[in-house]
């Protein structure tokens, strides 16, 4: 029996992210890339250096449901 493990240790559950995206990995990747770019821009203009990895931060936000997939897909199109 195969045991399902969390991606990136206990930090991020990719399967939960996919479930939040409606089981559409491609749309999830597009939305996460857009959010990661936003975080990187904000980090570049900010004096605080608390967000080191924008991609991981975007994944955590998406996993927690902090932002909607539909909002970011509208920004892409």
Question: What would you say this structure looks like, in words?
Answer:
- This protein is an all-alpha fold.
- It is built from four helices and no strands.
- The longest helix is centred in the middle third of the chain and has 21 residues, at 25-45.
Record keyword descriptors for this entry.
4 helices; mainly alpha; 77 residues; globular
Oligomer: single chain
Order of helices and strands: HHHH
Tally of alpha and pi helices = 4
Low-pLDDT residue intervals, each spanning 5 or more residues: 5-9
What global shape is seen?
globular
Q: End-to-end span in angstroms?
A: 42 Å
Nearest-integer average pLDDT? 77
Work out the strand percent: under 5%
Largest sheet: none
Calculate Rg over CA atoms.
Answer: 13 Å
Secondary structure: elements and pairs:
Blueprint: H1 14-20, H2 25-45, H3 54-64, H4 69-76
Helix pairs in contact: 1-3, 2-3, 2-4
Could you provide a short overview of the structure?
The chain has 4 helices and no strands. It has helices at 14-20, 25-45, 54-64, 69-76.
């Amino acid at each position: 029996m195969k045991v399902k493990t969390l991606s990136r240790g206990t930090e991020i559950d990719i399967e939960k992210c996919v479930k939040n995206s409606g089981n559409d990995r491609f749309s999830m990747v597009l939305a996460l890339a857009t959010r990661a770019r936003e975080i990187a821009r904000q980090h570049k203009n900010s004096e605080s250096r608390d967000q080191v990895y924008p991609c991981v931060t975007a994944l955590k936000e998406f996993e927690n449901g902090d932002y909607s997939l539909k909002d970011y897909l509208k920004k892409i199109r």
